[in-house]
Design a protein that fits this description.
Elements: H1 7-26, H2 53-61, H3 68-83, H4 87-92, E1 98-99, E2 104-108, E3 114-118, H5 121-138, H6 160-178, H7 187-200, H8 205-212, H9 217-220, H10 222-238
Length: about 240
């Protein structure tokens, strides 16, 4: 701490030291673990980066659908925002994961837990266009009607780094065209925006927890702090005696 290292770095090194000494105690090389007596530094809680609805619209609406890769990207990010998906969940989707009749997407979340999440009208429309015109041009081999939902230009399943790179590319183009600040646009920002916009629209916190696939409600409660910060800022800017 005296060297000016960030609290997260100090906590990480302290955890490593605790683990090392704990193993030494288990092996009988020492009698105690003095690192257990050292308190971890308090790390500042950072609120998640949330895009405004107009920023999300500017991003998604400016992704064209003239080429197979553009159709894929439009469908992918429409779905990411519509259903609040993690990057890992996006790339793990199969063609069969989308149920157009029920307007649901079957998501394999953390810990192998499966959940069914609604997909909005815009996402389903983009997915239909991609499956009808975009994906057939990308698929290789006999699995034209099955397999991974989102494919690369070489016909393989996308990686999470592919998803992040493509979103970064489109967000930069939006900035060049409209000047909207989307420097921090990343798949998790779309997920954060999905949850925050639901909360702003009156959705129940428990429902948002289920949609996000959070194991505990405490993880979801971060979005109440985002909403409180937004309301506080609005109050301070608008109230004459704030």
């Amino acid at each position: 701490s005296e060297q000016g290292q960030a609290p997260a770095s100090v906590a990480r090194k302290l955890a490593a030291l605790r683990a090392l000494l704990r193993v030494q105690v288990e092996l009988g090389l020492r009698e105690d673990n003095p690192a257990e007596l050292v308190g971890s530094p308090k790390r500042p809680q950072r609120l998640p980066r949330v895009l405004k609805p107009a920023e999300v619209a500017a991003l998604l609406d400016r992704i064209p659908v003239t080429t197979p890769l553009e159709q894929r990207d439009r469908a992918m990010f429409e779905l990411a925002y519509a259903s609040g998906l993690r990057a890992e969940e996006i790339v793990s989707l199969e063609v069969e994961s989308i149920d157009f009749d029920s307007e649901l997407v079957r998501v394999e979340g953390k810990g192998g837990k499966t959940r069914l999440v609604p997909a909005g009208e815009h996402a389903l429309k983009a997915l239909r266009g991609y499956l009808e015109r975009g994906r057939p041009a990308l698929v290789l081999g006999p699995e034209a009607t099955g397999g991974p939902l989102f494919l690369s230009k070489s016909g393989r399943r996308l990686s999470t780094s592919d998803v992040r790179r493509r979103l970064r590319t489109w967000s930069r183009q939006v900035q060049l065209v409209g000047g909207t600040s989307l420097v921090d646009a990343h798949p998790h920002a779309l997920r954060h925006s999905f949850a925050t916009h639901l909360l702003e629209g009156g959705a129940d916190l428990r429902a948002i927890q289920e949609l996000l696939g959070h194991a505990t409600i405490s993880t979801t409660q971060v979005y109440t702090r985002v909403e409180s910060a937004r309301l506080r800022a609005a109050y301070e800017s608008a109230h004459p005696r704030a």
